[in-house]
Write a structure and sequence with these properties.
globular; TIM Barrel; RHMD-like (chains A, B); homodimer; about 35% helix; Enolase-like, domain 1; isomerase activity (chains A, B); 2 domains; Enolase-like_N (chains A, B); seven-stranded mixed beta sheet
């Protein structure tokens, strides 16, 4: 069995998402105001001599990864993972291929654990006043979400209501948001705070102590993750579980240092950095330490990880960023896919995809009609 | 897809292996002297509603594991692993089923890394004088083995040449064996020593320092593994890499403590305690720490682990216990299997099985003719 080619399919689609001046791309106000615009989308196809292909949504592989893969056995994911230094794009193609080849969903190849997982809603950051956040949290709880994660203000000035640099942040206003939400949803709803690495140590300590009082479930990525020392101090000095790192590459090896140095209380990972192969190694590491792991977001790429892991290690599923009046967008697939990755079951769970491979079905008619 | 039954096949076969008075079963002298005797052998069959079964060689599952499995999806290995508290017998049946169902060898399901692995010969313990060991090591090197692991004297008095209690051991005589072997094979051959947990701390320290001088590759399981503290001291005080634990159950969690407490320089594991699922989690843990892992023995159960892991984590394959005049026995399968798990390639490697599942083919005619 051999990989014969990696083919790129490029086509156009529309999006409403804009980039921000300061580099953080999810400003709901700008986004909701912006007109849909046309962007170029790419799907890669791992072609094999078996007649079955694997697919993944992303740019073409770099030339050396491409060259490494051609002629190799597509089933040898472990070998290719090590040789490619954990390349995520190749790993995702290989997993989708394997599932399609064996006609089974990837979470079953990994050894299935569950077919659904408890779900939480994450807020967009910078949605408005603390009351706007509280309104939205209440709305999500009414819709059946079992927990709510706040992204308060980031890359944003909550007084001027306009983009701002990452630092200095606005920790007092962030705490006001957390207070307003806790007050509104009551004590029984699980709440988390994710500030996407914007605070310095003192700001993180202040916010951490405040949300410890508010009985938050975790405090995610409060500070930049390229410096581990302030995380160690934060874990020592706040009682709310500190969760991270998210954006540190080189899984699972980078996570080992964070665990050993007690720089987090809960781990975090996702398929994006070193693929499903790297992420599953990382999950095994967290499990070995009896440490909870949280996964960044949904996406077809993460779904098998949720489906093949136990509930004591990964408890909640993060279903994208929501904002008032905008949440229906998550119930529709992009125009080139036939379904969404994470349908709800009406009881606060999302369902793990059960179709072969990563589970998505590509609308090839759409692609043919919109090829670049 | 459901597990409908777990069926037991019981039949007779012959063996020459005897148990010893003191509980360690591998005495070559007794064994070579003993007449073949008839024993009862059992193969379990995991029956599913797919028409495909999984098989494993071992006694019937305990009633509660059996009851747990019936009606469940056999693909949900991860779920069943957690619910069964890592039961190995069930896990092996599930892996063999999965491979047969998908018509692929288990190491490929796990994400293949290699199809062969460097091989070492292990000596039987208590083979005779140090010269007998040296003769045998030389013979193994001539046959193409790339390394040689010594089991010197254990549960055995090397002066009286008869069974003896585990402790006190005979460390000076063990060192004489190591010296004789090193002298005979020269400095370029990789040598290891495994003393199967017989020493106290002082004995282990004495032997460890001696084989450090003799440039041994690892010192395996020198002391009982139910006490971790002397291992920590040994790692601090000898330069030869200390390798273990082997027989501590509850993978991968038990290994975490050994790593964290610096009780070993190299890890050890195998399928027997918590199945391939547990062992692969453990290997991910060792890999995350950049620590080498060694696997106890061959067997169809371990072969997929060798085939799906990288050479920096697991470098050598252990091909059973050898003794002069007795090594051909390893080239023949037991009468109820059609092949051996680990054929040699003539260049010091063993080949990973490539047939579906764990790779063994059962000789059903033999079983039918010898059913109990």
């Amino acid at each position: 069995m051999k990989i014969t080619e990696i083919k790129s399919h490029e086509f156009t689609a529309t999006t409403r998402r804009m980039s921000s001046k300061y580099g953080y791309s999810a400003y709901p106000i700008e986004m909701l105001q912006s007109e849909p615009r046309e962007i170029s989308v790419q799907i890669q196809e791992l072609v094999t001599d078996t007649g079955t292909s694997g697919y993944w949504m992303g740019p073409p592989l770099t030339p050396w990864i491409n060259q490494l893969a051609i002629g190799e056995d597509p089933i040898n994911r472990e070998w290719l993972w090590h040789q490619s230094r954990g390349n995520s794009d190749l790993d995702m193609l290989l997993w989708d291929f394997a599932g399609r080849y064996f006609e089974t969903p990837v979470h079953k190849l990994l050894g299935g654990y569950r077919d659904k997982i408890k779900c939480y809603a994450s807020s967009f950051p910078n949605m408005g006043s603390p009351e706007v956040f509280a309104d939205h949290a209440e709305e999500c709880v009414k819709k059946g979400y079992l927990a709510y994660k706040i992204h308060a203000y980031m890359y944003w000035d909550p007084f001027k209501m306009e983009p701002a640099p990452r630092s200095p942040a606005f920790p007092k206003m962030d705490v006001e948001v957390c207070k307003a939400v806790r007050e509104r949803v009551g004590d029984d709803i699980v709440l988390m705070l994710d500030q996407a690495c914007i605070y310095n140590y003192e700001e993180a300590l202040y916010v951490g102590k405040a949300i410890e009082e508010l009985n938050f479930f975790w405090f995610e990525s409060p500070m930049p993750e390229n410096i581990i020392e302030p995380y160690i101090r934060l874990v020592e000095n706040v009682g709310v579980p500190v969760c991270g790192p998210e954006g540190v590459e080189n899984l699972p090896y980078s996570r080992t240092s964070w665990i050993l140095r007690k720089a987090c209380d809960m781990g975090r990972s996702e398929f994006k950095y070193n693929g499903i192969t790297g992420c599953m190694k990382t999950v095994a590491l967290y499990e070995s330490f009896g440490m909870r792991c949280t996964i960044h977001g949904g996406n077809w790429g993460n779904m098998p990880i949720y489906g093949a892991t136990n509930h004591n290690t990964i408890e909640y599923y993060e279903r994208g960023l929501f904002a008032p009046g905008h949440d229906e967008a998550y119930e529709e697939p992009p125009p080139y896919l036939k379904e969404i990755a994470d349908p709800l079951d009406g009881q606060g769970n999302v369902l793990i995809p059960q179709k072969p491979g990563l589970g998505f079905e590509i609308d090839w008619d759409y692609i043919e009609n919109n090829r670049v």
